[in-house]
Amino acid sequence: MAEQAEPEPRYNPPSTPTTSPQPSTPSSPPPGGDCFPARALVTLESGEKVPVSALTSGQRVLCMDEEGHFTYSDFLTYLDKDSAAVREFCVLETQNPPRRLTLTASHLLYVADDLSVPPKDFSPMFASLVQPGKCILIAGAHEPQPARVVSVTTQTDSGAYAPLTSHGTLIVDDVVVSCFAVVQSHHLAQLVFWPLRLYHGVGRLGVQPEGVHWYPKVLYSLGKLFLNKKEFHPMEAQRRERQVHCGKKV
Fold it and tell me: What is the pLDDT of residue 159?
C-alpha cells in the first residue's frame, strides 16, 4: 500500500491574544525554567492554533527544520510547566509584517543582522540580547521569513511553559524559536537532550507534573561543572559569580 503524503504545513494569520490581568509580584525563573507565558500560541498539524499550555503528548506542532523550512514535529514534554508562575518576560515586536513574541530573557530565538540572510543561516541568540534593528524569523505564508525588530520591551505575564519537540524548534506566536535556553548553543542542547527525546518518543507517558523537568535540572548541574561561564546567559553567569564571591559552591 502506498504511503500517504504528509500534509503540507499551513499558516493562518494569528488572532490577537488577550492578556490576563497581571499579578504584581513576578518571580525569576528557576534553572531550566525559561519559557513562554500560558497564553502564547502554537500551531498544530491540523492548522489549529492552541495555547502552549494546552499541548498534549502525541500532538504535532509547526516548527523549522535544519534547512530553514517548515515541518511538523512531535511535542514530547515540557521542560518547564508552571501554571501558577508570574514572571517578567521580554517582548519583541516586528512591524512588517507585525508579530509580537513574549518569552523569558534567556530563551533562544533565531537572529540575523540583515533581511537578506537565508533562514537556515540565522543564529540562535538570547532574547534579552536582541535589539531593535535585528532580524528574527517569523511564519510566512509557506516558509519562515525574516522581519526586522522595531521594539523590545518587558512585561509581567502568567504561566510558564517550555515545550520540547523532536526537532528542538517551535513556532510560538508566529515566530521561530528554539526549545532551549540558558546555554547559548542550540546545537549542544539538541545533542545533550537526545536521551530525553528518545525516552519521550517511545510513547505517551501520562500527565506531566508541574515544575521544571528533572532532566534539564541534571544537565544544568553538569553544565556548571564543565562549561565556561561565557556559555551561559549573562544573568546566569552573574549569579554564578555572586555565589563564588559569597563562598558558595557552584
Answer: 95
